[in-house]
Specification:
With 272 residues, the protein is an alpha/beta fold. It folds into 2 domains: 198 residues, 2-enoyl-CoA Hydratase, Chain A, domain 1 (Alpha-Beta Complex), CATH 3.90.226; 59 residues. It contains 11 helices and 10 strands. The two termini are 28 Å apart. The chain binds coenzyme A. Coenzyme A binds next to helix 2 and strand 6.
Length: 272
């Protein structure tokens, strides 16, 4: 049976696991307890054989209203140990655990997405938003900087003009604008968001999992490399993949295209 948590919810459906921030009455603001639970859940789901694709979203009308200003900031202000523990868990799951998650990750941004919630949007492999979602780097509005690692996230992912504009003005923007500035891949009307996200999850479910894992690791890792380093690394990575993929994906892929003529790689995946 799937474990029960206080601030998050896990739902599993035929290979797709939904990891849901579940404090709808607080617009899924992220409290220390939520961070500890997300840390634990992501650690377990990384090893869970039923989880082939992970989707992160929020319960109710929000994706996440960012850090819980009361429980994460005010209530840890005079307690350095509690504060450090919350910060560590928060940075760990929103960045390290998501970035290194061994299976594809999708963020489905269904509504409000403020401040600290940008980090998990930047960390996942694919992000899809509702046209009607509201994003905002609202930190400046209440007197802090985009902390945690939000400033680094937006500097890395966004164009400098957009990062500076939204961080300095704190102005909210919708899902369409989030797609235009490439904070998310694209947006669709809220009424179609779940169906569209499932469609992409199913595309990923069809692929060989070892190839998917190596692909996400490769694309992310080469970003910081020179051309020569990338060439050497990718050659080694491909050799490692073909040696360790128990499904022998590359051989199957070639055989099904060249011998069986049962599919075309340009249009879809081979049968694993
Ligand atoms: N931290 C703590 N509590 C939060 C919160 C946050 N980030 N975001 C929402 N809440 C709480 C509210 O205090 C309120 O609690 P209450 O019912 O006990 O009074 C409840 O969630 C609902 O919020 P409310 O403001 O009434 O809902 P709304 O739908 O009118 O507005 C937001 C939603 C998200 C626009 C608004 O709550 C907001 O601006 N939140 C702060 C967003 C932010 O700046 N986040 C960055 C933090 S780094």
């Amino acid at each position: 049976m799937t474990k029960q948590f206080e601030c998050i919810k896990i739902e599993k459906d035929a290979g797709i696991t939904w990891l849901i921030l579940n404090r709808p009455e607080k617009r899924n603001a992220m409290s220390p307890t939520l961070h500890f639970e997300m840390n634990e859940a992501l650690g377990e789901l990384a090893l869970d054989e039923e989880t082939k694709v992970l989707i992160i979203t929020g319960a109710g009308e929000a994706f996440s209203a960012g850090q819980d200003i009361k429980l994460y900031f005010r209530e840890t202000e005079n307690d350095p140990v509690k504060k450090a523990a919350a910060q560590q868990a928060s940075n760990n799951w929103r960045w390290h655990k998501l970035v290194h998650f061994p299976k594809p990750t999708i963020a489905m941004i269904n509504g409000y997405c403020f401040g600290g919630a940008f980090t998990q949007v930047c960390a996942v492999d694919i992000a899809i938003a509702a046209d009607e979602a509201t994003f905002g780097l609202s930190e400046v509005n209440w007197g802090v900087i985009p902390g945690g690692i939000v400033s680094w996230n937006i500097a890395e992912l966004l164009n400098h003009r957009d990062a500076m504009f939204y961080a300095m003005t704190g102005l909210p923007f919708d899902g369409k604008k989030a797609a235009e500035i490439k904070l998310v891949n694209y947006s669709v009307p809220l009424a179609q968001l779940r169906e569209e996200t499932m469609k992409i999850a199913k595309v990923l479910l069809d692929k060989n999992p070892a190839v998917l894992r190596a692909t996400k690791e490769a694309v992310r890792t080469v970003r910081g490399m020179t051309h020569d380093q990338a060439q050497q690394y990718l050659a080694a990575k491909l050799t490692a993949l073909t040696a360790t993929d128990k499904d022998k994906g590359m051989q199957k892929g070639m055989n099904q295209f060249l011998d069986d003529k049962s599919y075309r790689p340009g249009f879809g995946a081979f049968k694993n």
